[in-house]
Description:
Blueprint: E1 17-18, E2 21-22, E3 101-102, E4 109-110, H1 112-115, E5 120-124, E6 141-146, E7 152-158, H2 174-180, E8 186-189, H3 194-203, E9 210-213, H4 214-217, E10 223-224, E11 235-236, H5 239-248, E12 261-263, E13 276-280, E14 285-291, E15 296-302, E16 309-311, E17 325-331, E18 333-335, E19 346-348, E20 352-360, E21 363-371, E22 379-381, E23 389-391, E24 395-401, E25 405-409, H6 417-421
Parallel strand pairs: 5-8, 6-24, 8-9, 12-23, 17-24
Antiparallel strand pairs: 1-2, 3-4, 5-7, 6-7, 10-11, 13-14, 13-25, 14-15, 15-16, 17-20, 18-19, 20-21, 21-22
Amino acid sequence: MTTESPPPRARAARPALVGLLVALVVGLGVLAGAVGLSLTGLGAQPSGSQPPSGMSPSATLPPSEVAIASASLAPASAPASAPASPVPSASPSPGAGQALVPDPLTGLLVTPQAAIRHPIAVMIDDQVDARPQAGFNAASIVWQAPAEGGIPRYMLIFQSTIPASVGPVRSSREYFIEWASEWDALYVHAGGSPQALATLKAEGHGQWVYNGEYFHWAGTYLWRVTGKRFPPHNVFTDGQHLRAFAARLGAKDKPIRPVWQFTDDAPAQDRVAGTTITVAYPYEAIQYRYDAITNSYLRYIQAPSGGAFHLQVDDADHRAVAPKNVVILQMAFGPLNDGHPNKHRLEASDVGHGVAWISTNGRTIKGTWRKASATAPTKLYGPGGTPVTLTAGQTFVQVMQLTDYVSIHPGHSPLPDRALAD
């Protein structure tokens, strides 16, 4: 196993003594991101397989079990075993009068420096023993798709925001690499299927992605935490180390061409209140409950054993996970004949086209997803074949097998006068 020490941290300059005067110490400023937010469409009720335990496609979903009171919570501290941060811990403050520009992955307004940061895709574990995971709220786009054993897996794509903590990091799969390649991303993982590892060996030097393999760089840019977490669910990293990792592998910052279109939040009176979206993998069910006041979709997860849905909370900042857009891509999956039949690995038909359900501002439309090649972008189109416009902000992409359960319960419009007065 080869490791490389991180670049040394910059030494603080020693103040020079001139007469009785001491030089001033210059402090670093921290820039916080702004949040922006639209789309219209008709409510829909796609069909699927059997609903999650205790639910029917037309069921009225229960109210939230958990109140959100996290605004004053501070981000979680880095694990004690983390290596020293190899890059500055904060991006520079914009100069006076500096114009903001749209983030290419979210449409939010950010500094020009943040807009050109190289995208970083990180594979995230989704087994119960891996929870709570960290890094979701800092991601621009989150993908969730089936993996073997009926257990899905996440891929978080970071761009303008530098996350405080990310993990647990898990192994790679071919179709996730193909989605990461759409952004020429640093692709961070811990091992992978033979198919995925072969692709990374051939195309992981900047051709498709930059191969960020944990087992080659363990202890440098990724590390195992101790305490309540245990292998293989304890590989973590953070945004500063990921940025240094990208630079080490040659993934340079540069202008990024947007793929999706974004606009601001719809006016409150044009939002559809009460929308719920439920998708179910064999291992677990996911439920989104649209909040018209914040114009976001609170994300709930049902345990593999069934029962109540519980609000997902990011372990990095202790805040609820609530994207602005939810996109469901339906596509065919089949067994991956990779010589390991007991692993039950899958292969996805992610190149081509299929049904997409796109929800934003509480409204859901049925459209189409298209991907022309392994490295081509996944594009979203509405019923008339025109590109979809999303609300500026985070997007969750739920990739579902054709037989998986998908249910969309349309809300009501317009937003109640009582809510508008709050």
